């Protein structure tokens, strides 16, 4: 392997005089330290590398050693439930890959196996974690160890490939983080990822295998939304990467997730989660790498035929790390100091989201959800505007809603989903064939209300004709009853598709009844002040997931209240 | 290794704070050095870059008067450190930890790197203990929790210093578990008047005995200003994680810190980002703010209340903007409220405590506290919107409910936000429920029917139930 002697050091960047040949992207180690680095430029008499750690104390003369391979991470069943740094080194405890674990073979001699298919499982704490065959290593099983306890780093099977060569298969796999993992083919996303959040599932759904962005100024709710999705979305595996954000938020995930149960499996949420943390005070070069590390982990599980959701909080910090390193390399800055390749890097990242047919023919998916932290909350800045070009769901957070503590503060008129219409069939299969119509009706009313709101600023509310006052009542009902959903409410933090459908129906019915009453001559303020509307606006908090009867009762109350109202109108027929 | 070597004639250039020398000593990046001029004056600095034959020293004091000839360099053999011990409490130090109160030197018990260690997120404990500051707008709606970093966003001439002092001297836990509190007060680029008034308050309230003050004055070199919070936070970490104290760090003014950073960055010839501040301002501020917290298995905590003045009262300016992205909320002071005579002039709407949900509610304050806080936010924000509307269409153009909200906005500011002395949490609750009674119950969407029944029913009805 090549090595080099440091000739210059400043910040996270070192230069070295090489002996032997280095490749761009090659991982290096700094001798006598734990430091890892990556070569960014090579010339015949000089290499330039960035170091993923604190360079304090480094000096010219120190040796850099090449590893002969691109910057890579170790993938394996040990990742689930753990917390790792940006290069997938465990943040606590000993290296989990140094242990011995209970292996259970899933195949016998002579079986044939495809890349991605499981050769067996690691059994720990009553859960089985599959061990997939790495890409390029299919064939016939020549040897496989019987059930037992073995060191994680040792091979457990041998497979003879089509070329006749025998390869060892282990529980672990090494993969370069900047290279996407191979698949059979990409499939068109065909169904939503259910998030349990009404404003997302019902108005701005994201596809399984799709990509979404959450832009918002500080304190508007990006992190809480990411955490909420990580808790309740219907993915099999969650990869949560804290990229340049707070240490306490990582600690929160570590404290909370083991105590929450996945509503679908009844198992602790932590068991399906991999946490990658490069907090704001950690070395900035590793922050840049952490995003690729996370996507690689996501693809690793996707290739096992699983549905993976990756939350990156925040992609802006990653872009800033790019900017910082680029600045230190003296590259010419483009917009707002970001390097000119910002846009293509973002595109590359989001392109790794996909629903795929894996090498073994199974279906897997990787859904990417990136938080964006625009300076001053201004969505026209480079990271937000480029991201907007690559995502299909855009969930814009609104400062005014956040300040009124109206959560989630997603602005319904600044958000969109390009896939929504395609999911009407999925909702119909779930028992709501009106979904598309309901969705349009809500969006139209919200839009109409925004227009009226601007008008009332000039003429006053009382000057509006009754039908327009009714629009305001309806929009208020949609906002309060459907869009508002506290992440901290025991009853409401998760809302199943069935419960969403019930709630939508009630709200739409109330609006229809309101319009009919208006037609019959009821005064708009009498409709707006109906006590039953208050009940509707609070049903999210008040009625639990497992209490459909309460929604039926509310429905009956609603009918009764409006029937009553019409009776009281003297000139109603 | 400590060595003093004379590097006669090795100086190559001095550009701004950067001194380039021939490298004839084995030294590593970031190591501390003292640059000793011919006249014997010493300036300290650190190694910013190294190559085969030269090294760049970032001089952390003014380079004025420094000549290339006859420079001597004292090599400390380690990064900048702070020699610190328990008798630091009660002392007044300059911006880099040297006593300026006429007292003896600090007896060193430990030598800590001023950059601190990165707190491993996996070893952090979650901040949960509610701190009662005695300020209603904070306690009720933007609660401070032990181990939190909660800055005050202020503007020139607003009473942020007074508020910070009140928080520092009045804050207490709900349950007094007999723990040790200390205060680290950090003046960054402040005037003599400000420094004197802080000292005065500390003396008067007797707080000085458990306080250590770091004072970097406005006329101290700006490169030192960058070190002041680092020395102070090192002291805070020593007190908290070394001695088990609960430490409250008040730092004022972060804006001066950022300006010094901008100046130094320009001196390095770096490409500026927004408004001339370096592109790494976010990461740099994070290395300060992230030093707040609580570690599993360690008794003490570090809570930070940094104060910054927003240039032109602009919350979107890079300093408050980046701070808000790192800290766990912010308390925003408002000039309009100040002009109305409201003290403290806290605008609750842009204010936020991200940890409020971890520190209030059942087991911490009161089971109905979270709902009450949410309702106050919802009602006041509606009231403020109504105020805008009323300024255009007049009060008469408003519905009855809107008129009630209009009155609510005024009362909220005058009775709840405004206060003359320390308020206990229960007193704050009482005022808040009383105010909500002025609004139509059906519109209080954040409160459950039971909560309305419990807290907002007519006093007379309450009397009757008591009689039953
Ligand atoms: N969906 C939500 N439900 C309840 N509270 C929320 C929600 N979203 C945000 N919040 C509140 O807002 C605060 C700030 O949210 P956070 O996600 O940390 O903001 P950001 O990451 O955008 O800076 C949180 O601490 C929480 O109190
Ligand atoms: Mg966040």
Description:
The complex is a heterodimer of chains A (573) and B (468). Chain A is an alpha+beta fold and 573 residues long. Helices cover 34% and strands 24% of the residues of chain A. In chain A, strand 23 (354-357) and strand 24 form a beta hairpin. Helix content of chain B is 34%, strand content 24%. Chain B contains 15 helices and 21 strands. Chain B has helices at 136-139, 160-170, 192-205, 222-225, 228-242, 254-267, 281-289, 318-326, 335-339, 356-359, 369-393, 400-417, 425-436, 449-456, 459-467; strands at 3-6, 11-15, 18-22, 31-36, 42-51, 54-59, 72-79, 81-84, 92-94, 110-113, 130-132, 144-145, 152-154, 172-173, 181-190, 211-217, 246-252, 293-294, 301-309, 329-333, 346-353. In chain B, strands 9, 13, 15, 16, 17, 18, 19, 20 and 21 form a nine-stranded mixed sheet that branches. In chain B, strands 1-7-4-5-6-3-2 form a seven-stranded antiparallel sheet, with no helix packed on it. Mean pLDDT of chain B is 90; it is low at 460-468. Strand 1 (3-10) of chain A pairs antiparallel with strand 5 of chain B, so a sheet runs across the interface.
């Amino acid at each position: 392997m090549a090595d080099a002697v440091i000739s210059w050091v400043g910040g996270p960047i070192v230069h070295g005089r090489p002996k032997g040949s280095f490749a761009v992207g090659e991982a290096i180690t700094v001798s006598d330290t734990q430091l890892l680095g990556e070569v960014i430029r090579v010339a015949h008499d000089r290499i330039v590398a960035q170091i993923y750690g604190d360079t304090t104390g480094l000096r010219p003369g120190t040796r850099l050693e090449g590893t002969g391979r691109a910057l890579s991470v170790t993938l394996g069943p040990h990742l689930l439930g753990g917390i790792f740094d940006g290069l997938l080194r465990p943040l606590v405890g000993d290296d989990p890959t140094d242990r011995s674990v209970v292996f259970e073979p899933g195949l016998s001699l002579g079986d044939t196996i495809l890349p991605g298919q499981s050769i067996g499982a690691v059994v720990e704490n009553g859960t089985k974690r599959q061990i997939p065959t790495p890409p390029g290593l299919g064939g016939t099983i020549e040897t496989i160890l019987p059930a037992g306890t073995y060191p994680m780093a040792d091979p457990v099977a041998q497979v003879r490939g089509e070329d006749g060569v025998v390869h060892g298969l282990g529980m672990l796999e090494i993969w370069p983080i900047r290279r996407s993992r191979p698949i059979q083919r990409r499939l068109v996303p065909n169904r939503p990822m259910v998030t349990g959040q009404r404003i997302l599932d019902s108005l701005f759904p994201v596809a399984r295998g799709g990509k979404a962005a959450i832009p918002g100024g500080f304190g508007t709710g990006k992190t809480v939304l990411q955490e909420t999705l990580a808790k309740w979305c219907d993915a099999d595996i969650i990869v949560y990467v804290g990229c340049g954000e707070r240490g306490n938020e990582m600690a929160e995930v570590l404290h909370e997730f083991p105590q929450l149960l996945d509503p679908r499996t009844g198992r602790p949420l932590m068991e399906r989660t991999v946490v990658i943390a490069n907090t704001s005070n950690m070395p900035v070069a590793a922050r840049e790498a952490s995003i690729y590390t996370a996507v690689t982990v996501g693809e690793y599980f996707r290739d096992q035929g699983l549905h993976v959701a990756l939350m990156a909080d925040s992609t802006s910090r990653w872009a800033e790390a790019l900017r910082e390193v680029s600045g230190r390399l003296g590259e010419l800055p483009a917009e707002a100091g970001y390097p000119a390749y910002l846009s293509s890097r973002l595109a590359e990242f989001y392109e790794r989201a996909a629903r795929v047919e894996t090498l073994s023919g199974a279906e897997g998916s990787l859904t990417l959800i990136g938080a964006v932290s625009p300076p001053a909350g201004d969505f026209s800045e480079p990271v937000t505007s480029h991201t907007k070009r690559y995502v299909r769901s855009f969930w814009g957070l609104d400062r005014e809603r956040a300040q009124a503590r109206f959560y989630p503060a997603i602005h319904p008129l600044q958000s969109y989903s390009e896939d929504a219409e395609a999911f009407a069939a999925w909702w119909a299969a779930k028992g709501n064939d009106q979904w598309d119509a309901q969705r349009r009706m809500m969006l139209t009313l919200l839009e109409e209300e925004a227009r009226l709101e601007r008008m009332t600023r000039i003429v006053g509310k009382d000057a509006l004709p009754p039908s327009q006052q009714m629009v305001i009542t309806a929009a208020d009902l949609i906002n309060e009853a459907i869009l508002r959903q506290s992440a901290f409410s025991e009853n409401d933090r998760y809302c199943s598709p069935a419960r969403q459908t019930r709630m939508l129906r009630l709200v739409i019915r109330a609006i229809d009844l309101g319009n009919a009453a208006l037609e019959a001559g009821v005064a708009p303020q009498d409709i707006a002040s109906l006590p039953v509307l208050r009940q509707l606006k609070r049903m999210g908090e008040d009625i639990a997931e497992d209490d459909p009867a309460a929604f039926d009762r509310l429905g009956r109350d609603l009918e009764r209240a409006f029937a009553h109202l019409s009776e009281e109108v003297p000139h109603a027929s | 290794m400590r060595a003093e070597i004379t590097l006669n004639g090795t100086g190559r250039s001095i550009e701004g704070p950067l001194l380039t020398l021939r490298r004839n000593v084995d030294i590593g990046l970031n190591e501390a050095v003292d640059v000793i001029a011919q006249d014997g004056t010493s300036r300290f600095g650190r190694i910013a870059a190294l190559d085969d034959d030269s090294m760049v020293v970032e001089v952390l004091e003014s380079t004025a008067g420094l000549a290339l000839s006859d420079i001597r360099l004292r090599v400390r053999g380690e990064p900048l450190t702070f020699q610190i011990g328990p008798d630091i409490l009660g002392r007044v130090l300059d911006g880099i930890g040297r006593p300026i109160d006429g007292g003896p030197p600090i007896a060193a018990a430990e030598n800590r790197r001023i950059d601190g260690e990165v707190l491993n997120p996996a070893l952090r404990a979650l901040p949960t203990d509610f701190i009662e500051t005695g300020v209603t707008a904070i306690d009720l709606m933007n609660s401070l929790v032990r181990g939190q970093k909660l800055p005050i966003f202020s503007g020139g001439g607003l009473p942020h210093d007074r508020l910070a002092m009140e928080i520092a001297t009045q804050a207490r836990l709900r349950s007094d578990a007999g723990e040790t509190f200390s205060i680290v007060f950090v003046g960054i680029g402040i005037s003599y008047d400000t420094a004197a008034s802080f000292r005065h308050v500390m003396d008067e309230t007797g707080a000085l005995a458990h306080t250590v003050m770091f004072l970097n004055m406005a006329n101290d070199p700006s490169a030192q200003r960058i070190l002041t919070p680092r020395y102070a936070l090192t002291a805070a970490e020593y007190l908290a994680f070394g001695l088990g104290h609960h430490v409250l760090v008040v730092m004022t003014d972060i804006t001066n810190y950022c300006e010094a950073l901008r100046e130094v960055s320009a001196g390095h010839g770096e490409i500026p980002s927004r408004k001339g501040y370096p592109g790494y301002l976010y990461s740099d501020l994070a290395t300060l703010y992230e030093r707040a917290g609580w570690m599993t298995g360690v008794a003490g905590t570090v809570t930070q209340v940094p104060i910054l003045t927003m240039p032109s009262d602009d919350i979107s300016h890079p300093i408050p903007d980046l701070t808000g992205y790192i800290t766990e909320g912010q308390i925003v002071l408002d000039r309009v409220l100040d002009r109305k005579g409201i003290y403290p002039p806290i605008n609750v709407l842009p204010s936020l405590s991200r940890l409020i949900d971890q520190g209030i509610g059942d087991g911490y304050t009161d089971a109905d506290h979270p709902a009450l806080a949410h309702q106050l936010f919802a009602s006041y924000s509606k009231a403020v919107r109504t105020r805008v509307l009323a300024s255009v269409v007049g009060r008469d153009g408003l519905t009855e409910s809107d008129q009630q909200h209009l009155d609510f906005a005024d009362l909220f500011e005058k009775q709840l936000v405004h206060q003359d002395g320390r308020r206990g949490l229960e007193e704050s609750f009482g005022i808040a429920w009383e105010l909500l009674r002025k609004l139509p119950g059906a519109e209080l969407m954040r409160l459950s029917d039971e909560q309305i029944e419990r807290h907002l029913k007519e006093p007379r009805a309450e009397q009757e139930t008591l009689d039953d």
